[in-house]
Amino acid sequence: xxxYQRRVAITAGIADLVEVIPADSEKGPIDxxxxxxxxxxxxxxxxxxxxxxxxxxxxxxxTPDLWRYKYEIxxxxxxxxxxxxxxxxxxxxxxxxxxxxMWLHFFNNPLLDIYELRRGCNIVHDLDMIPEPxxxxxxxxxxxxxNDYPMTLRLLEGIKNKIPKDPVVYQWVxxxxxxxxxxxxxxxxxxxxLHIAPEGKxxxxx
Length: 206
Description:
Elements: H1 2-14, E1 18-22, E2 33-34, E3 48-52, H2 74-84, H3 96-108, H4 114-126, H5 133-145, H6 149-162, H7 167-184
Antiparallel strand pairs: 1-3, 2-3
Helix pairs in contact: 3-5, 5-6, 5-7
């Protein structure tokens, strides 16, 4: 009886997290489809599949509630392992839409730990690009979830140092990030006086 009640609860919960779509639907760059199981409360035909809600481009990604079922549902565990692979060193070769979508999901992952946060930030910093403000926002939110304020300063320093001779771009990035920086209480290195060299050390290189 307890097993049955647990199964019913899983079925009811998963119905809020996935949807049924035609199997021949075009699969987007970050779509997550679940295969290999069926739920009585969420029937699907032979030519249909389950798609995780929230995985369209521009959406915030799978809800954290989905990963609660990864121990009971093998397909969810497979989706979890797939999702954890986002943000590989090869992501700079992806189309812009897919690159942004995968990295947004990477930093939006509620299971992201401090090591993965710093690994992801370092990978993005090493790429020959300036990250979009929307991506930096997700980095900031990830830093806030993990209480890593110093990393927010390093992110801003990294952006500024990439374009030392073009301050207009850096100021535009700050302008776009102003709302989230105010929301999270993030200051720039300049506002904190971190651009000032210690006495007797000479000017900083940036």
